Amino acid sequence: MKLILASSSPRRKRLMKRLNCSFDIIFPDVDESKMQFESSPEKYCISLAELKADNVSQNYPNALVIGADTIVVLDGHIMNKPHGHDEAEEMLHALSGKIHEVHTGVCIKSINDNIQHSFSEVTQVNFQKLTNQEIRYYVKIYLPFDKAGAYGIQDWSAVFVEQINGCYDNVVGFPLSRFYLELKKLDINLLDTISESY
Q1: Sign, Cα dihedral of 38, 43, 49, 51
Q2: How far apart are CA 142 and CA 21, in angstroms?
Q3: Under a CB-based contact definition with an 8 Å cutoff, are residues 122 and 103 in contact?
Q4: Which of 69, 146, 155, 187 is catalytic?
Q5: Which of 72, 99, 136, 142 is disulfide-compatible with 79, CB 3.0–4.6 A?
Q6: What's the pLDDT score for residue 192?
Q7: 3-state class (DSSP) for residue 14
Q8: Where are the beta strands (DSSP E) in 3-149?
Q9: What is the reported pLDDT for 31?
Q10: Closest listed residue to residue 44, CA positions, set 12, 65, 70
């Protein structure tokens, strides 16, 4: 079965490559800003993931399309991607010294095989107390404007993290282990798609 990752995220691409299976990348043509917040962060990120998977599946009904979306939640409020230096710094000041949650919603869809399966994963992240200098440096050098919550745990902002509770890959942007488990629940064996002998 042809696999398609419906995402423009280079981080999700790198994570998916670790599965050693072939897949294509198709950028979904969706406007995430029009999605209204639902009753819970879990439902919100799943709805965004489904929106991406649905969009790409329309043109690739034979493929298994994977949509995903990651959000940062602090005290029940969603932190989306910042719109510039000031907002990024404000987000990091808010996260400083606190525990927040990272939610990723995933949708696995194949129109022709009648598959529509969604789930979400949550990881708790505890930030150390950050200094103004650390925040300014990070935002200026790493420009985290494409990242929810204005940070990427896989880069220099790893020094912000005191502790995580849950899946590290989920914080990066895709819960790889959980995704593999959910595929097995659907009787989809990725090892069958690996052509190399082992």
Answers
A1: negative
A2: 30
A3: yes
A4: 69
A5: 72
A6: 80
A7: helix
A8: 3-6, 24-25, 64-74, 77-79, 99-110, 115-127
A9: 75
A10: 70
Compute CA distances 159 → 128, 130, 169, whole Å: 8, 10, 17
Residue ranges with strand state E in 60-189: 64-74, 77-79, 99-110, 115-127, 161-165
pLDDT tens digits, one per residue of 1-40: 789 999 989 999 999 999 998 999 999 998 776 566 667 8
DSSP letter, residue 9: -
Active site residue 69: yes
pTM equals: 0.92
The alpha carbon of 97 is separated from its chain's Cα centroid by a whole number of angstroms, namely 23
What single string gives the DSSP state of each residue in 172-192? HT--HHHHHHHHHHTT--GGG
Rounded Cα–Cα distance for residues 50 and 65 (Å)? 10
- Residue 157, sorted as left (phi over 0), alpha (psi -120 to 50) or beta, turns out to be alpha
* Pick from 186, 20, 178: nearest CA to 104: 178
* Exposure string for 97-115, b = 16+ CB within 10 A, e = fewer: eeebbbbbbbbbbbeeeeb
Q: Are 163 and 193 in contact (CB under 8 A)?
A: no
Report the candidate in 185, 187, 155 with the shortest Cα–Cα distance to residue 171: 155
Rounded CA-CA distance 138/128 in Å is 15
